[in-house]
Design goal:
Elements: E1 2-4, E2 7-9, H1 11-31, H2 51-90, E3 98-105, E4 111-118, H3 124-127, H4 151-155, H5 161-164, H6 168-173, E5 176-177, H7 179-197, H8 205-208, E6 211-218, E7 224-235, H9 249-252, E8 264-266, H10 275-291, H11 297-319, E9 320-322, E10 330-334, H12 335-338, E11 351-356, E12 359-369, E13 376-378, H13 379-385, E14 396-405, H14 419-431
Parallel strand pairs: 7-13, 10-12
Antiparallel strand pairs: 1-2, 3-4, 5-6, 6-7, 7-14, 8-9, 10-13, 11-12, 11-14
Helix pairs in contact: 1-2, 10-11
């Protein structure tokens, strides 16, 4: 815009005026038009004024250049902003300050929430010296369960209980929560605290919540009754040369398989326990490693203790017979309960029934298990409840199995299993608590029939030819096994078994 005599004229209007002026001038020149002359005056030549025209052109050009420069600046600014945004998108992002939260689920089923908090600091050489500059805080939250004490609570997991055990409602009216329910969860929490402190693998959520309740009843005759509702894991231990003279090599030579069960009886024949040969081989391997010059002193000390343990075990196997989990129906009770002096504490050999779905299975208390978990039975029972069960796959994962144990009911003399005798005795004991609407399962003998030998059985070297019916040695204590130092020999060193009274975490079988 510019001004002519106080009036604002745009550069377009100015350009139009200039064009009109040029045309007018051209016409005058072409046709020789002249302004009328005044009388008595002399004609003067026409002088064209180009100064104003030049000024106008200069001003118009300056305004156009300014407009062009302005628009170019705007385009450059916009392009710079777009380039800046693109660079920001492509550039690597720096870790943000403040908390960053991530929630995942661990293998054992525990939701694991982590929060990494990043705050500005000083230079690295100084931060290295500050304990709080790189620190972690770990907190595990869990809820301790309450025991089921009423019939509605029990039938949430086992709807058939009242029909199978008609006397249960009356028993519940005077039932007391067992102290061992609280002890069980005390032991679980103690174990979790220990493992959390050392950042070890924790007890799984499944195995933490493995018991719905443990209750104490009194039968109409005053007999104590131990009632437990839980899941069912699998135990696969045991051996008996009298009834099963041969076992697979993978079991005989295993450092994990345990030949013993808590329930045992005097051996009745000279047929060696098949597990003895494997334990002899382990002693030979341990002795070979013991004499090696490269074996460290701490390892040698452990090997000596280990050899002594294996020898005690062999002595026990040649004097006593044990249940066989693959063939005999029995349940497992935590070893701390088995050893307690209490009228409600089950003992090895006490009769028990297992209630699942619409069936009742007779059994006995056959073995002691870990103090931090419950709900275990032999492989024979497990496969009856679920054909897909194995030493590594539990038959029932939900808390739908009821274990009814009759403390003090064990026979005065321990003998090899008699399944029909067990079934009859369990039937009699059930009558004391109101009976049952279902027939007890009848176990069949699945052991292979041993052929009658034509020649005397050879006793392994180093064993006495006579059998002591009253052994003085007890089963080797699993808790007495020392931790094995690392081996330096390449040929099958003796190693501690992992199956014990305290098995590895989150393992369905022992």
């Amino acid at each position: 815009m510019f001004s002519i005599k106080g009036k604002n004229i745009s550069w377009i209007q100015g350009a139009s005026l200039c064009a009109a002026a040029f045309i007018a001038g051209g016409l005058i020149a072409a046709f020789g038009l002249k302004a009328p002359a005044k009388k008595e005056s002399k004609a003067t030549p026409v002088i064209r004024d180009t100064t104003k025209q030049t000024e106008l052109e200069t001003k118009l050009r300056a305004e156009m250049e300014a407009e062009l420069k302005k628009r170019s600046a705007e385009i450059e600014k916009k392009s710079a902003e777009e380039i800046k945004k693109l660079k920001a998108q492509l550039a690597p992002k720096a870790p943000p300050a403040g908390p960053v939260t991530d929630v995942r689920k661990l293998r054992n089923g525990i939701p694991f929430k982590t929060e990494v908090k990043v705050d500005p600091g000083t230079i690295s050489s100084l931060e290295r010296e500050q304990p709080e500059s790189y620190s972690a805080f770990y907190q595990l939250s869990l809820k301790r369960p309450s025991p089921a004490t009423t019939l509605p609570e029990l039938i949430q997991s086992s709807p058939n209980l009242p029909a199978l055990l008609p006397g249960l409602p009356a028993l519940l009216e005077k039932a007391e929560v067992s102290k061992w329910f609280h002890t069980l969860y005390d032991n679980k929490i103690t174990r979790i605290r220990r493992d959390a402190t050392s950042l070890n693998e924790l007890l799984s959520k499944h195995n933490f919540y493995d018991c719905e309740t443990i209750l104490h009843f009194r039968s109409k005759t005053g007999r104590p009754v131990f009632f437990m509702q839980a899941e069912m894991d699998v135990v696969s231990d045991g051996s008996d040369g009298d009834r099963l003279a041969q076992m697979p090599d993978k079991i005989v030579n295993s450092t994990h398989y345990q030949p013993f069960t808590s329930f045992a009886w005097p051996k009745q024949s000279q047929t060696p326990n098949p597990m003895i040969a494997g334990w002899q081989n382990r002693i030979a391997n341990a002795q070979k490693e013991l004499t090696a010059a490269t074996t460290p002193a701490d390892r040698k000390s452990w090997l000596r203790d280990r050899i002594a343990y294996l020898k005690r075990g062999i002595e026990d196997m040649k004097n006593r017979s044990f249940l066989i989990a693959e063939h005999d129906p029995f349940i497992v009770i935590p070893v701390n309960i088995l050893t307690e002096n209490d009228p409600f504490a089950p003992k090895a050999g006490d009769y028990a029934v297992i209630v699942h779905n619409d069936k009742i299975y007779p059994s006995i208390v056959g073995d002691g298990g870990p103090t931090f978990k419950v709900g275990e039975a032999s492989l024979r029972v497990a496969r009856e409840l679920n054909a897909n069960a194995s030493p590594y796959s539990r038959p029932v994962s939900d808390l739908k199995v009821s274990y009814v144990v009759f403390p003090g009911s064990r026979d005065p003399e321990r003998k090899a299993p008699n399944y029909e005798r067990w079934r009859q005795r369990c039937h009699e004991l059930l009558q004391e608590i109101g009976g049952s609407s279902a027939n007890l399962h009848a176990w069949q003998d699945t052991l292979p029939q041993a052929p009658t030998p034509n020649t005397p059985i050879q006793t392994p070297p180093g064993y006495p030819t006579t059998i002591n019916p009253f052994p003085t040695s007890a089963s080797p204590s699993p808790g007495s096994r020392p931790q094995a130092p690392a081996s330096t020999t390449p040929d099958k060193p003796e190693s501690p078994p992992t199956q014990s009274a305290e098995p590895p975490l989150d393992q369905p079988s022992r």
